[in-house]
Design brief:
Distance between the termini: 51 Å
Catalytic activity: 4 Fe(2+) + O2 + 4 H(+) = 4 Fe(3+) + 2 H2O
Family: Belongs to the frataxin family.
Number of strands: 11
Order of helices and strands: EEEEHEEEEEEEH
Shape: globular
Radius of gyration: 21 Å
GO molecular function: 2 iron, 2 sulfur cluster binding; ferric iron binding; ferrous iron binding; ferroxidase activity; iron chaperone activity
Subcellular location: Mitochondrion
Largest sheet: 7 strands, antiparallel
Number of domains: 2
CATH class of the largest domain: Alpha Beta
Strand order of the largest sheet: 5-6-7-8-9-10-11
Main location: mitochondrion
Structural class: alpha+beta
CATH topology of the largest domain: Metal Transport, Frataxin, Chain A
């Protein structure tokens, strides 16, 4: 019989424990009985969603999305380049229609404690909150959500874009 929450891949069994950071337990079955030798491999864990409680995540995520909503509403209203644009926010989903430039969708993913971005320029990305930079980071390229949005908006508008008033902007806010 296998231990609880054990995943079998070939002859190896894996269990992920979140109690002491990220931990991968590799188990090998030594006999048909429940004797299992386990080797524990620890992986470094950064200050990401592991440290965020669900209430704290919801608060940070809501503040982020609400401040992005305000930013995009002002941006669409004040720029003729974005004529026909529309910004809507509800139920954790921010939709930014930029006319001929495409549609951005930024939404909360509570089970994963992430913010997901769908961009017409850079495609889909999943952002985790990093306490050390006080912002949302995409782990594959180490770029903050606000940095990416600022650069894409600057490219669309052909002028610098200031997102320093947005909450939880991380490095884009000078951190």
């Amino acid at each position: 019989m296998l231990p609880r929450r054990c995943l079998r891949l070939g002859r190896l069994f894996y269990n992920v424990s979140r109690q002491s950071g990220r931990q991968l337990v590799c188990c090998r079955r030594q006999s048909q009985r429940t004797r299992i030798a386990a080797q524990t491999l620890n992986f470094s864990s950064s200050n990401t969603d592991q440290d965020l409680g669900s209430v704290e995540f919801e608060k940070i995520c809501s503040s982020t999305l609400e401040s992005l909503h305000e930013f995009f509403e002002i941006l669409v209203e004040e720029n003729a380049e974005l004529k026909g644009g529309d910004v809507t926010y509800g139920d954790g989903v921010l939709t930014v229609k930029l006319g001929s430039h495409g549609t951005y969708v930024i939404n909360r993913q509570s089970p994963n404690r992430q913010i997901w971005l769908s961009s017409p320029k850079s495609g889909p990305k999943r952002y985790d909150f990093e306490k050390r930079i006080n912002g949302w980071i995409y782990k594959r390229d180490n770029v903050c959500l606000h940095e990416l949005l600022r650069s894409e908006m600057a490219e669309i508008l052909k002028m610098p874009v200031d997102m320093s008033n947005c909450e939880y902007g991380g490095r884009s806010n000078g951190l």
